[in-house]
Amino acid sequence: MSKAAEDQTVGDWVQQHLDEVCGWPALSTPERKCLVEACDRDVFSAGLCATHRLRARSRMLRERDGGGSK
Ligand SMILES: [Zn+2]
Q1: Which domain of life is it from (predicted)?
Q2: CA of 19 to the centre of ligand 1 (A)
Q3: How far is the CA of 64 from the centre of ligand 1 (A)?
Q4: pTM of structure
């Protein structure tokens, strides 16, 4: 099943169960997508997806170790 077809199916299901869906509690994580604009992966930690968090971490370590001089 393609992604679009799956979205369509979910959309149909939601329409048929609108009362139930509207009664669902709010989720505690308002930002579930990676902070990187071009990236639409789910947040893993610190507002970033696993890949971008790893990248941020290596940048942070490099900056810390290099004293930010370069
Ligand atoms: Zn990302």
Answers
A1: Bacteria
A2: 34
A3: 22
A4: 0.51
How many domains would you assign to the chain? 1
| Cα end-to-end distance, the chain, whole Å | 49
Largest pairwise CA distance in the chain: 59
CA proximity to 21, closest of 29, 11, 30: 11
Domain containing 32 equals 3-66
User: Could you tell me the distance, in angstroms and rounded to a whole number, from the CA of residue 50 to the centre of ligand 1?
Assistant: 7
CA of 56 to the centre of ligand 1 (A): 10
pLDDT in tens, 36-62: 989 999 988 888 999 999 999 999 999
